[in-house]
Amino acid sequence: MIPPGETIGILGGGQLGRMLAMAAAQLGYRAHVYAPEADSIAAEVCGDFTCAGWYDGEALAKFAKACAVVTYEFENVPVPPLAALGATAVLPGPNALEIAQDRVSEKRFAEKLGGCPAKWAQVDGPGDLDVALAAVGTPGILKTRRDGYDGKGQWRIASDDEAKALELPSKPLVYEALVDFACEFSVIVVRGADGDVRFWDSAQNVHKGGILAHSAVPASALVLAQLGEARDLAAKAAAALDYVGVLTLEFFATAQGPVFNEMAPRVHNSGHWTIEGAVTSQFENHIRAICGLPLGDTALAAKRVEMRNVIGGDDTGWAAEDWAAILGDPANHLHLYGKAAVRPGRKMGHVTRLTLS
Known about the structure:
The protein is of the alpha+beta class. Helix content is 26%, strand content 29%. β14 and β15 form a beta hairpin.
């Protein structure tokens, strides 16, 4: 067990790191953020900040020596440079990063455990797309194997003619069949250092432009009917990875059952509602897990919980003068991330609304 007063290192300086640092402080830990960007919003709430590149071995080694344990807030942290962290534990383990960073590895991992992703095919060069289209059919979605998130690095293809008109990037891709789904949902699980596994209620999610816009619990009857199978896959994934911390799997609810979409080896946007809406939040339980503490209760703290992202350039109509009105309703809980620049598609904050009865 890592005792309170020690320092937790966080790789990445965004809003997830910010909320992890705040949860760590609540339990008496210090947080030290490592990020290449100087304008880190996570660093604003941390005791220490190292601003250096991912491949700066000297800076990483010095950072590791100041930390009792290191975790990460997003899945695109390069894995090879983490060797510079030396004997300092990295939790969850880098093996989870390696799988989640490559969509092909991710799909194969899920399939090996009995999961069912959409029909897919690798596209490693221009000629492979024709083969993929013949095997998978249209409509479908072409995605970069690495670095895509929030709808970036994706192209929807409705026909063979559309595919021929595309100017493909010179990087490995994967082509997926478009899934006919009723709704989307996520399974968020936490696994402790002792193997204890707990789930939060699964949120039913709505995406706009590839970005999560709204999450609500409890989910619909359709999602609840498919939850056992989805949770089974999440538990198998956590065990196979010897995982410690919070792990998220996203699914499509279909007439044929849950279709696996993506895995995120970290706390997740669709779990932000747990800060007020669960007995123990995903952020606190992640800190508990990586520090070897007993996991907290994941039960709902309200009859219904809804979370809405505040996204730059979206159609919510919210403006600065609306915050007072939002806060004036005691059912609402406002979280703004402190980002100075508002850009279309940028997550600026979220609002969680609790229905107690």
